[in-house]
Amino acid sequence: MVSTTTSPTSPLRIGDFRAYLVARFAMTLAQYAMMLVIGWQTYSYARDGGMSIAQAAGQLGLIGLLQFIPLFVLTPFSGLVADRFDRRRVAQVTLLLQTGSGAVLAWVTWSGDITLGWLFAVAVVLGVVRAFNGPAMSALAPNLVPAALLPTAIALSSIAWQVGMIAGPGLGGYLYAIQPALPYAVATLLLAMALVTMGFISPPPRPERRQQVSPLVQVLEGLRYVARNRMVLGAITLDLLAVFLAGANALLPVFARDILEVGERGLAQLAMAPAIGAAITAAWFSYRPLKTNVGPRMLWAVAVFGAATVAFALSRSMALSLALLVIIGAADMFSVYIRSSLIHLHTPDDKRGRVSAVSLLTVSASNELGDAFSGALAFLVGPVAALIAGGSGAVLTVALWSRLFPVLRTTRTFAPPPALQDELPEQKLQERIS
């Protein structure tokens, strides 16, 4: 037990945060194992069915689109759910649905009934689930630690996420080589573990409900807050455009099978490489949190992300491709760490769920819709040209955003505005720490 009169010096001394960290790791490990196998099965099924490289890449784009549509429709309202209901329970419901999805894919793969239709259907379900899971999990973290420890907590949470991203694809790829249904079965067990672990977190404080205000008005309040806060808007939209244009993950099955010709085990290595770079970066920030020149450094990180994507598209060496993907992951984590800290610390707690939902929506647009864009562009001009164009576009976006949002260039620290610094008194949080 940590004394309620002494501030903890590390998020790891807070029991609720430890449970959150375990659940996040198990969930991420399962998700990325499933995502790798879903992409590989989709591309391989399409190629084995007689589709060309470009046509099969288009199927990968369709997977991304099917996940994005429910996210786009539901995310603004899921943020309101995260603000009005117990965020732990919302996360548990989504974990339950993910567990069911993993079990279904394990069964149809094992029985030999797997088809593109099954893969597309589960992609839609996962899109719905992630619409609610993301805002709830993101908004829960700041309720578990004092504000002074939040950047460190975000770094530790990012480590759990990135280690899951490293081990997940490797787990999925190598288990798939043993038995195609095995990665789905293991993912189902991991998701069930995350579901149980979330139950160990104490009920977080919730803002007082305002019954007289309609849900739609409250959703619009979150959108208006993002639109009016130049710091939050600039950080969110910078990530949206950069990853939307330069996302290479969707096309990794294409590079693994038909460009680098390294097969499913090579695909696992390619998928793990960005997460390795990201995990190293997150570990560094958990040891030495960034304190100065945060805005300019975020801009430079996104520029490096775009340039490394162009170089990856041109590489024909597995070793060089892996090194470039490590750089891509490190640069992305550098940007995510700064952006997440700024958004959380510049947002009132009663709007964090909705602002996190808007942030998730843009991340989903940059990831899932970006996957669809990459797949469609690869269908039109080929996968190599698609990544060259996207990476170049990300670099140009940095130059443009540094002028449209000068606050990104001038922000030196994570310090929130004075009006937000006393929003959640430390004493209230200390009473919940154990």
On the 0 to 100 scale, the average pLDDT is 81
CATH architecture level-2 label: Up-down Bundle
Please give the number of β-strands: 0
CATH fold descriptor: Growth Hormone, Chain: A
Unreliable stretches (pLDDT < 50, length at least 5) are 1-5, 422-434
Q: How large, in whole angstroms, is the Cα Rg? A: 21 Å
Q: Helicity level, as a percent range?
A: over 70%
Strand content: under 5%
Major pleated sheet: none
**Count of separate structural domains:** 1
Structural class designation: mainly alpha
Distance between the termini: 5 Å
Highest-level CATH class? Mainly Alpha
Approximate shape: globular
Indicate the multimeric state: single chain
Plain-language structure description:
This protein has 434 residues and is mostly helical. It contains 17 helices and no strands. It is globular. The N terminus and C terminus are likely disordered.
